[in-house]
Description:
alpha+beta
Amino acid sequence: xxxxxxxxxxxxxxxxxxIDKIGFTTAAPFTELxxxxxxxxxxxxxxxxxxxxxEKRVNPSLLLEEPRSIIAIALAYPxxxxxxxxxxxxxxxxxxxxxxxxxxxxxxxxxxLKKLEAFILEKVPDARVKSMVDTGELSDRAVAERxxxxxxxxxxxxxxPEFGSYVYLGEMITSIPFEPDTPIEDQCGTCSxxxxxxxxxxxxxxxxxxxxxxxxxxxxxxxxIPDEFREKIGNRVYGCDSCQTACPANKGKDFHFHEEMxxxxxxxxxxxxxxxxxxxxxxxxxFGHLSGSWRxxxxxxxxxxxALAHFKDETAVPDLVEVLQNEQxxxxxxxxxxxxxxxxxxxAYTALEKARKTETDIEVQQEIEKGLRMLNT
Length: 377
Ligand code: B12
Ligand code: SF4
Ligand code: SF4
C-alpha cells in the first residue's frame, strides 16, 4: 500500500461524507499537555468532566496497540439561527450555547468517524482503529492542534482559519503510519478580547482556564450555583459563548453545512417559565436530542430559574412559589427561594415567609434567608 496515496484518498473521501477539515499527526505522547494537565489538577482548575487518568490522556499507546498516527476531524457548526424569533412583549427566553444547537454533535461526529473507519478497513482489513469524540480519553484540542486543524487560542479553543472556533472536534487513532501535517501558527497576536469578554474571569491567562469559574461548567453542574456567579449566568440555560463571540477570528463565520445542526429557536431559545413545569417525558421530547441535555432536566430548570431572576420576571412568581412549595430537591427549592428574593413583590415575600416556618433543609433555609434579605433591603 502506498500510504501517501491512501492519505489523499482518505482526504477526498472525508469531504464526500461531510467532514469539513481533516488533519494527521503522529501517535507520539503529548508531553507538553501532560505537564499542563498536572498543573491544572494541582491548581484545582479542572472541571471533573475530563478522563481522570492523565497517562491515558497523553499516551495513545495505552489506548490502541502500536498506534502509528492520529486522524483529527473538524465539523463546522452554525453561529446564527436561520429562523429569527419575533420577540413578543413580556416573553422571557433562555439560550442554549451554539455547541448545543441542533442534534447532539457526538452522534454526528461518531457517524462520520464510523464511515471513515469503514473506508480504512475496506482498503486495509488488518488496520487497527479507535475513534473518539469529547468523551474519549484524548484531548481533542491537543490532537487537533498538533494535526494542523487550527491554533490554540487564548480563549482555549482550537481556531481554524476557515471556520473560526465554531467547530466540533473528534479523532481516530490508527495503526497506519500516515505522514503528519504541520501545525498552524498562533494567530492571536496581541489580541486579548476573549479575556476581557469572559464574564467571570475564568480565563486566568491566555490559554488557561479555571473551569470551576467558567459559566459553561457551572451550567452543567447539579448543585446550587455559588452566589458570586448567579447574576453572571444571565439567561444562559446551557453553556456559554462569550469568549468565542468576542473573537475576531469568528467574525462573519456562520456555516450551515450539516442539516442535523440546524436549529429550532423554540427549542434552543426556549421560553423560560414552561421549563419549570416540564415532566421528564416533556423534557426528553423537547430537549433530549440536544448535547445540552446530557445532565438531565434539573440543571436546566435550575438555570431557567436563575434566568427568570435575571429578567426580574414577576409573572414567574407563582411558578417559582410552586417549586419552593412542592419540589423535593433542595437545589430546586433553594434556587427558587433565591429567585423569588431577586424578583421581589408581595407574593414572593409571603411565600418566603411561609416557607421559612416549615423548611427543614439547611441549604434551602439559607437560600430563603438570602431571599428575604434581598427583599428587606
Ligand atoms: C472538560 C471540557 C470542558 C470544561 C473545561 C474546558 C477547558 N478549557 O479545559 C468546560 C465544561 C468548562 C468546557 C467548556 C466548553 N467546551 Co468543552 N470540553 C472539555 C473536554 C471534555 C476536555 C478538555 C480538557 O481536557 N481540558 C484540559 C486542558 C488543559 O486541555 P485542552 O484544552 O484539551 O488542550 C489544550 C491545552 O492543554 C493547551 N495547552 C497545553 N499545554 C499548554 C501550555 C501552555 C503554556 C498553554 C498556554 C496552553 C497549553 O493546548 C491544548 C490544545 O489547545 C473536551 C473534549 C476532549 N475530550 O478533549 C471538550 C471540548 C474542549 N469542549 C468544547 C466546547 C465546544 C466547549 C465550549 C465552547 C461549550 C460552550 N459553548 O459552552 C466551552 C468553552 C470553554 C473554554 N473557553 O474552553 C470543544 C472545543 C472545540 C474547539 N473548537 O476548541 C471540545 C473539544 C469538545 C469537542 N469534541 O468538540 N469544556
Ligand atoms: S465559556 Fe464563558 S465563562 Fe467560560 S471561559 Fe468562555 S467566556 Fe468565560
Ligand atoms: S479573542 Fe483574540 S486572543 Fe482571544 S482567541 Fe480570539 S484572536 Fe485569540
